[in-house]
Specification:
This protein is mostly helical. β1 and β2 form a beta hairpin.
Length: about 425
């Protein structure tokens, strides 16, 4: 049960969510007001990226904060979502007031100034997430120094970017000077920004080590909670590798970059979603099944793609040497080969994955298969009873196992 104080704090989560929705709606208005000459596809992709990112963090943050107000992860997500939507709104406002209709709206330079520094305020707390997940506290008291240093790095970077004189380069307005810049402190502020950036990098790396440290000493539910987030992080890493591969192999265009960025953001939204599942413990125990299926079908897809491409190239080369031209038979034969290989290859990969990463499950399956063979051949009921007790003990590993048998017309018998 929540105390009155925690109920009052938890109530704050949804008004913050509503404020985020209002700011996003206003950002939509300014996006619609952009001139038609602006690249419509790029605008749509950029805005879809922003909405996905904001919705994932803010909604999951509100859910966690309202149900677990004592867990700081929910409030970290709420803060990130609010900062992200503020960045989108201020950027669109400044674009309209400085470029589309110069002078049409007040505080245009202030909006550009906010956009110059708030993006790091929005993304920087990911370090706190890694440090505090899943219970909202550092792994041990000695890790609190990392939290304080991370907070100091973010504060130092914010102050330096907010007050440093000169153009608002982070917002993309080289001709707009910082309206709140302090000329007399320019050198000190630039030095503070550099030091804060280095400190931020160090503390974020320390936060990564913190969650690894927590995982190595965890067990039970806590280990499964970390597995959920680790799975989401692995998906993000895979998308990053895919993004780099595509950009290396294909000609780079603005639309291609935007689409790849959209894919990256979609994968990033999995982080707050996975954290929400872990903290709220909804379907928590399915993570091992999800990881297992991902390993199996990921490897299966890669191998089948390799076989398909290799067989097409090989057969096309063979047909070209024999007939002097290409043939669709290569594609047909390769497709039939893939269809024939799918189930045998999937079973083989499943066996390898279970044997390597899920040894207990693999051993249990082998034990049951052996017992099934015994059932077909063994006719002695006493021997079967003893074998069944052994199988249950090896697969389920209970503290104690008993078997009661009641043959027709006789008293119950028991094997232990």
């Amino acid at each position: 049960m929540l105390t009155d104080h925690r109920k009052a704090v938890a109530w704050l989560a949804w008004p913050l969510w509503a404020l985020t929705v209002v700011l996003m709606a206003l950002a939509v208005v300014f996006t619609v007001l952009y001139p038609l000459s602006r690249d419509a596809a790029t605008t749509a992709v950029n805005f879809a990226v922003a909405i996905l990112f904001v919705a994932a963090f803010q909604t999951m943050g509100a859910l966690i904060a309202s149900r677990r107000p004592g867990n700081s992860i929910g409030w970290v997500f709420c803060g990130m979502g609010l900062a992200l939507v503020t960045a989108v709104f201020s950027g669109n406002y400044a674009q309209y007031a400085l470029v589309v209709e110069p002078g049409a709206l007040p505080w245009a330079e202030t909006a550009a100034w906010v956009g110059n520094w708030i993006w790091l305020v929005a993304l920087g707390p990911l370090g706190f997430f890694l440090l505090l997940f899943p219970d909202g506290r550092p792994p041990s008291p000695r890790w609190r120094i990392v939290a304080w240093l991370l907070a100091a790095a973010l504060a130092g970077w914010f102050v330096s970017q907010a007050l440093v004189p000169g153009p608002l380069l982070n917002s993309g307005y080289e001709s707009v000077d910082n309206p709140y810049g302090v000329e007399a402190l320019g050198g000190i502020l630039r030095l503070a920004g550099t030091v804060s950036s280095v400190l931020l990098l160090v503390t974020v790396l320390a936060s990564v080590f913190a969650i690894v440290f927590r995982f190595l000493r965890s067990e039970g539910d806590e280990r499964r909670q970390i597995k959920w987030v680790a799975y989401a992080g692995a998906v993000v890493a895979l998308v990053l590798v895919l993004q780099l591969t595509v950009l290396t192999a294909l000609p780079e265009t603005d639309l291609l970059v935007e689409i790849l960025n959209l894919g990256l953001v979609v994968s990033l939204t999995g982080v707050p979603l996975a954290a929400g599942v872990a903290i709220l413990k909804y379907r928590l125990y399915e993570i091992d099944t999800i990881i297992n299926r991902t390993l199996v079908y990921g490897v299966l897809t890669a191998l089948l793609a390799l076989v398909y491409v290799g067989s097409v190239v090989l057969l096309q080369t063979l047909f070209r040497a024999l007939t002097g031209g290409d043939s669709q038979l290569a594609v047909v034969a390769s497709t039939l080969a893939i269809a024939a290989l799918f189930n045998p290859l999937r079973r083989r990969i499943q066996t390898v994955v279970d044997r390597r990463f899920y040894r207990s499950k693999y051993d249990a399956v082998k034990t049951l298969e052996s017992f099934s063979a015994t059932l077909r051949d063994e006719t002695d009921l006493d021997a079967l009873s003893g074998e069944l007790v052994t199988v249950v003990r090896e697969t389920v590993q209970p503290a104690r196992v008993s078997l009661w048998l009641r043959p027709p017309g006789s008293d119950a018998r028991r094997e232990t």
